[in-house]
Design a protein that fits this description.
The protein is of the alpha/beta class. It has a domain of about 170 residues: Rossmann fold (3-Layer(aba) Sandwich), CATH 3.40.50.1820. The protein contains 11 helices and 6 strands.
Length: about 240
Amino acid sequence: MTVVLVHGVPDTPAVWSPLRARLGAREVLAPALPGFGVDVPDGFDGTRDAYAAWLISTIEAVGAPVDLVGHDWGALLVQRVAALRPDLLRTLAFGSGPLDDTYIWHDTAQAWQTPGVGEAVMDGILALTEAERAGILQAGGADPDLSAEQARTWDRRMSDAILGLYRSAIDPASVWPQLDRPLGCPTLVLWGGADTYAPPEFGERVAARTGADLAVFEGCPHWWPWSRVDEVAAALTALWARA
């Protein structure tokens, strides 16, 4: 079976590198979201629905149900795939991306969503040295090695993609309908217990609504794919063994 790992913002597939090294001989696909370390395809409008359609097409190309894993915006996208195309899933795991009627975007997201303000924020970020940019990301919870990678790959192309994506989802309560029932496949919710962008209560809520297993990593910030890689690998391996 193929594992598909979907990253979030402001990341590239590199966020999955430590985890991929612990998944043994499994076939693993970690595609780059358009604009995140890769060019945007012609005609791609950069909205949430465009990204969801792109992910569905990417999974369809595999040709069989997959073990789908998403973090941050990747978590939002895989939840949308689960709602629209459950036939594409053998298992589902996601976290730190709340698709919840009660969620309010964090302050940085709201700045990005504001015309003029978002552009100014991005200009300021891109004007920093990589070391300065990494320091800001580390202050937000990224491990030092991860923040250095994020700082290296954050360019104008990614900034534009982030603004377009967030501005297509101004009201998180109406981004897409929240998942409210079991999904018909083994499901796991993964969350950092110290996530300041999306507190773990949102992981608890979606796990309760869908009957999913829940793994909350105490003391872990937002980026559990990197910060708690051994625990994540063990939890995913146990999930896949149930399918």
